[in-house]
Amino acid sequence: MLLDEEDPGTAGFLHDYRVVKHSLKQLNGKNLGLIGKVSDWLISSAVPSSILKEKFGISLSVTPWSDLPHFSEFEASGPFLEAFSGATGINLTETAQVNELLADTIQKHKLDAITVECFPLVRKDSVTACLPLAKFNNEGIPAGCEGDLTAIAGMMLCKELTGIIPWIANINKVSDEVCIFSHCTIAPGLVSEYSVTTHFETGVGTAIEGDFKADLVTIFRFDNKFSKAFIATANITDRPKSPTACRTQIEVKLKPHEVRLLRQSPLGNHHLVFPGDCSNLLTTACLVLGIEVQK
Question: N or C: which end of the chain has fewer CB within 10 A?
Fold first, then answer.
């Protein structure tokens, strides 16, 4: 790359480049745990361990649910219950036990991040992992859901780049006017107000419904070969409370070419939503990693 030292943007680029190189060095050697499998309805979310290792230096370990003890064998965590002490009308005991199961797994396997196939818990025991995953993200441990390996890799990268773990969210609607994202596992620190309610798809378990704090967000997603990336910045235009979508929701206004990309060339289901403008850092990271940013 040829840089002009008199260009006012050169100093900023070199700063971002240094941050990216340091972040990738920090990411190298991290241990990621997949509990269960990648959910079979996800698109482009399964990633061979060899690609994670080659691209980011991340080691993947897979633990089937059948290899783990039942969450009922763990005592409900006092700190977990205190963290969500404002929840009313919902018994958090089983959710707190799930938290302890996952925390025990993270400790025993020395994991730096985790992604969980959630629905076996829901189907078998009518309990969800949404709140534990939200709490892990709030405490600096990247934690994804539905076993999405593409998304969790992006979450791990963003944490190293910025110190903040983005929100993993579904696309609910894309129109010329607005795009709506939603999900049930947002970190409490990313919302100004929240309540604990039930999981959207099943109506059981627990999930967070809150108002995203930031007004400006960065939205991004890798493909599962880490050869392409979608990166966009947008202003939040609304924080809806639709009963037909996952609990925490945002509405944003995207540019016409970004709408076209999401409609015609989407890279997958889950996108990552970061508070503020992280686009330059992410674009520089893609440059260093040899990942093409969609245009």
Answer: N
